[in-house]
From TrEMBL, chains A, B:
Gene3D superfamilies: Jelly Rolls (2.60.120.10). InterPro entries: cNMP-bd_dom, cNMP-bd_dom_sf, RmlC-like_jellyroll. PROSITE patterns: CNMP_BINDING_3 (PS50042). The lineage of its organism: Bacteria, Pseudomonadati, Bacteroidota, Cytophagia, Cytophagales. Residues 23-114 form the Cyclic nucleotide-binding domain. It comes from Marivirga aurantiaca. This is Crp/Fnr family transcriptional regulator. It comes from the Bacteria.
Length: 187, 187
DNA sequence: TTGCTTTTTTAACCTATGGTAACTTTTTTG
DNA sequence: CAAAAAAGTTACCATAGGTTAAAAAAGCAA
């Protein structure tokens, strides 16, 4: 079941037989979170990665009494505080379930084991590379576009996300206040 | 000679014997650029990565009649339009030598070959992961900090870069105009 | 349903940064 | 080395988006 979901999600990037994904899922536990559950707290080290089966999660950074949202991830994608997972250091990022969520959890120990296999090294290389590309695109958007352009493009690219996720999170993901987002939406 | 430079640069991340780096440099050609040479033009596909031996390079995106700088890279680091290299698609990014530069050039074909070796798969995984971490930090800085904070932190972290690189590039890297940077510097 | 909490909207005012333009300094080039 | 081009500075006004505050709407628990 789950191995098929993973295969489907990754086939566009590289094809691996379903038995290989089965081995992957055998290393995972299924976990679930309630809406607003904190998955990883600020100041801790990330010890897992998650493949979201259903729901949505976000990664946040607190700044005095409010916060910014660095990423919002929907089902059929990997999710984690990748920075902390990669550096194996504590990070001040917080990961939160933004909806009732079920996910496959894989431990860092198992990730490290997998990285040594041909399959794992390709999987995580592709994961890291596409995360980089996505982050660079976010950097470009922040540097070159107005808040209004960023909102319109997000809306076009992922209208479902805008329906499902609270505006305060979307606003902070776009780098603006909820007031500004509201102002933009009025148009 | 060059293999030692590479070993020294990468030992903090993972240690490989110098003979392995020798094999790496055997796949490279040494190239040099004059200041302001365009290494890869907008609209082309990146066909190489570079390890900068001496000098500095930047990666830029044009926006009507001006531009933003996505990254400035000094000697002893890898440099490329990674996005285009990864996706193997054209990108509108432009890479430019910001100083007289000498570098080791490795072709995408050789990179792909290397990725299949144990050494290469670790090297490029670590490269992609640390590029991601760096990009995420840039995203955080853009979302949470003022231009003045970003300037002061860059100055603290890399005072040499501020000496060597033209202010117009630094300004665009920080996401501001040269006029704003000038205003900040006056303090 | 009712009442309480959280989220979203609206509005008035403020600030950091952008745009334009004139001027000065530095760098490049014949 | 002088002339020309590029880069940096300064001053002015314009504006996107922040801040504060409060009302309205939506969500949620009892």
């Amino acid at each position: 079941m789950n191995e098929l979901k993973l295969k489907t999600a990754f086939d566009p990037y590289f094809e691996a037989p379903v038995e290989v994904w089965k081995k992957f899922t055998d290393l995972c536990q299924q976990v679930s979170f309630k809406k607003n559950d904190i998955i990883k707290q600020s100041g801790e080290t990330e010890k897992n990665a998650y493949f979201i089966l259903e729901g949505a999660c976000g990664i946040f950074l607190w700044k005095e009494n409010n916060y910014v949202c660095l990423d919002i991830v929907l089902e059929n994608n990997f999710f984690a505080d990748h920075m902390s997972l990669i550096t194996a250091k504590i990070s001040s990022l917080e990961t939160i379930a933004l909806e009732k969520t079920t996910a496959l959890r894989i431990s860092k120990a198992n990730i490290d084991k997998l990285k040594k296999s041909p399959f794992g090294s390709v999987l995580f290389l592709i994961g890291a590379e596409s995360s980089f590309v996505e982050k660079q695109q976010q950097q470009i958007d922040l540097l070159m576009k107005t808040a209004e352009q960023r909102y319109n493009e997000l809306f076009k690219k992922n209208p479902e996300l805008i329906q499902r996720i609270a505006q305060k999170h979307i606003a902070s993901y776009l780098g603006i206040t909820t007031q500004s987002l509201s102002r933009i939406r009025k148009k």
